[in-house]
Write a structure and sequence with these properties.
about 130 residues
């Protein structure tokens, strides 16, 4: 599946602010659902959706065969040294094992050598402010 990041808007037609019900209808696959107070997470094979008070706040894409995640001119999982390439165009910080590119609403984990599964999280404006500060 090919996914296209739209900074601070979402991925493909999964738009931040959408309801749980609308995402379930669009994706039309069985989800594992985890609920903790006002936070609900939907998990599929290659995507996870985080909702706060029934509004989509972030989307994580897990590197898997057949998953292509694109932003700007890059295929994020396929490009070598993608973190360094993004850092040439966008400011970033590294915190808690994440490379956070707040100006475009993207964080990356698992991109260090020998780190395991790579994940890219796309988030709505200000959702990661507490992590960044």
């Amino acid at each position: 599946m090919k996914y296209l990041i739209k900074s601070y808007k979402g991925i493909n037609d999964f738009i931040f602010g959408s309801s749980i019900e609308s995402i379930q209808e669009k994706y039309n696959v069985p989800f594992k659902i985890v609920q903790k107070k006002e936070i609900t997470k939907l998990y599929s094979d290659d995507l996870s959706f985080t909702f706060e008070n029934d509004r989509l706040m972030e989307i994580s894409v897990i590197e898997n065969d057949g998953v292509e995640l694109c932003f700007d001119k890059y295929s994020l999982f396929q490009e070598s040294k993608i973190i360094q390439k993004l850092q040439k165009s966008y400011p970033s910080i590294k915190k808690y094992g994440f490379y956070i590119f707040d100006s475009i609403g993207i964080s990356c984990s698992g991109f260090e050598e020998n780190e395991g599964q790579r994940t890219i999280t796309v988030y709505c404006p200000h959702y990661w402010d507490a992590v960044i500060k």
